[in-house]
Amino acid sequence: MMIQPDRQKGPDFQVLEGIDFLPVNRLALPNGIDVSLIEAGSQDVTKIDWVFPSGAVQAGKPLLASTVGNLMLEGTHTRSSAEISDIIDFYGAFLNVQTFHHISVVTLVCLTKELPELLPLVEDVVRNASFDEKEFSIYLNKRRQEFILDSEKVRTIAARQFGSVIFGDDHPYGRQLELAHFDTLTRDELVAFHQKAYTPLGCRIVVAGQPGMDIIPLLTRYFGATEWLPGSVNLNGVGKIQTSSEKFHLTNREGALQSAIRIGRPLFNNTHVDYIPLQVVNTLLGGYFGSRLMTSVREEKGLTYGIGSSILSYPKSGMWVIASEVMGEMRPAAVEAIFDEMRRMMVEPIDENELEVVRNYMLGELLRQFDGPFSTSDIYRTLWEFGLDFDYYGQMVEVVKNITPQQIMALSVKYLKPEDFHVVVAGK
C-alpha cells in the first residue's frame, strides 16, 4: 500500500551538527608530484585537476599567464587546435585551463573508462603546447577587442580601479591590464614561461569521483616521468600592499546612466583568527538576499536593483568589498545608506531571530558546497593553497552555530568603521 505524504506538513527541521568530510588519500608520483584522491560518488565519472604554480604572480607581467593557459588548448607539436577539440567532443569530455593569482589549473572531466584515451591528450597539452604564431595572433586580437569593449563598462572600470586603490598599482593583486600590454607580449615569452612553470616542480594533482583501480598507474605513466624536467619557476614574490591614502575615487564617464560603486578595505586572508566570524558579519551585512544592505538600500530606499558584500581571501592578503550599481543622481544617497548600515551594526546588537536566519542560511550553504566529490575537491584544492585542511570548515560550523550578537557587534566596531573604507565610483 502506497503511503501518501502529508503535504500540509513540512519536513522536520534539523540542526547541522557537523559535516562528514570525504576522506582524502595522498601519495606521490616518481617525479615528486603530489596526488590527492577523493574517491566517492555513484557514477563512473572522474574529475582531475592539475595545479601548477603558474599564475599572474609567477608571470610577473599582466596577460602572460592567462594567455599561456588559454593557448595550451590551441595546439601542440603533434595536434592542431581542431584535432584537440575533436577528441574532447568525441569522448564527451571537458578540458579547460583557469589562471589565478598564484596558480593555474588544468581540469579534465570525463567518463572513467575514457581516461586511458584522454590522459595522453592532457599530457600533450601540458608538456608540448606549441603556441602557434597564427593562433597567438588570433587570440590576442580577440582579447584586445574584449578588453576595449569591457573598458567602456562602468562596472569594469570600478572593479579595476578598486584593486589598484586597495593593493597599489605595482602590487600583483592591484596591477591592472592595460591596452599597451597587448603590444608588448611576445610568443617567446609564452614559450619561456610555459617551459619553466608547467613542470613537476610545485605541481599537484587532485582526483575526484570514481577513477578506478588503474588511476595511479595511468597518472604515473603520463605524468610521473623522472625525465620531465623540473623547471625553475620565478615566484617573484608579493610585496607589501600600498593602499591609496585617498578615500574617495571618482572616474567620470560621459553619458553613463549608472554609477558603479565599490566600497571596501584591505583585510587579512582566511588564516586569520577573525576571518571565520567576520564571514558571519559579512553575511548579515550584505552576503545573502535577505541581508541588511539588500533590505535597506534595495527594498526600503529603492536606490539599486542589487547590492552585495563579500570578503575575498588571497594567499598573501585579502579585502572586504561592497558592490552595487545605481542611477548617477542616487549615488551619494546610496553610499550614505551603505555607511548607515555599517554604523548600525556597530551600535545595535543583532536580533536573535535575524541571527538564526543567517545561521541557517550559512550552514545550508556549507552543506551545499560539500555536495559530492567534485565540489569537495574544489574546496580541498583551495584549502591546500592556504595551507589549511577540512578542519577549517569544522571550525566554521562551530563559529556559525555559537557566535553571539555581542561578538558580532564587537567585530563590527573593529572592522566596519566607515572611515577605514575606500569608495570607488565609475560613472557620475
UniProtKB/TrEMBL annotation:
<dbReference type="Pfam" id="PF00675">
    <property type="entry name" value="Peptidase_M16"/>
</dbReference>
<dbReference type="InterPro" id="IPR050361">
    <property type="entry name" value="MPP/UQCRC_Complex"/>
</dbReference>
<dbReference type="InterPro" id="IPR011765">
    <property type="entry name" value="Pept_M16_N"/>
</dbReference>
<keyword id="KW-0645">Protease</keyword>
<dbReference type="GO" id="GO:0008233">
    <property type="term" value="F:peptidase activity"/>
</dbReference>
<dbReference type="GO" id="GO:0046872">
    <property type="term" value="F:metal ion binding"/>
</dbReference>
<dbReference type="InterPro" id="IPR011249">
    <property type="entry name" value="Metalloenz_LuxS/M16"/>
</dbReference>
<dbReference type="InterPro" id="IPR007863">
    <property type="entry name" value="Peptidase_M16_C"/>
</dbReference>
<dbReference type="Pfam" id="PF05193">
    <property type="entry name" value="Peptidase_M16_C"/>
</dbReference>
<dbReference type="GO" id="GO:0006508">
    <property type="term" value="P:proteolysis"/>
</dbReference>
<feature type="domain" description="Peptidase M16 N-terminal">
    <location>
        <begin position="68"/>
        <end position="138"/>
    </location>
</feature>
<protein>
    <submittedName>
        <fullName>Zinc protease</fullName>
    </submittedName>
</protein>
<feature type="domain" description="Peptidase M16 C-terminal">
    <location>
        <begin position="185"/>
        <end position="360"/>
    </location>
</feature>
<keyword id="KW-0378">Hydrolase</keyword>
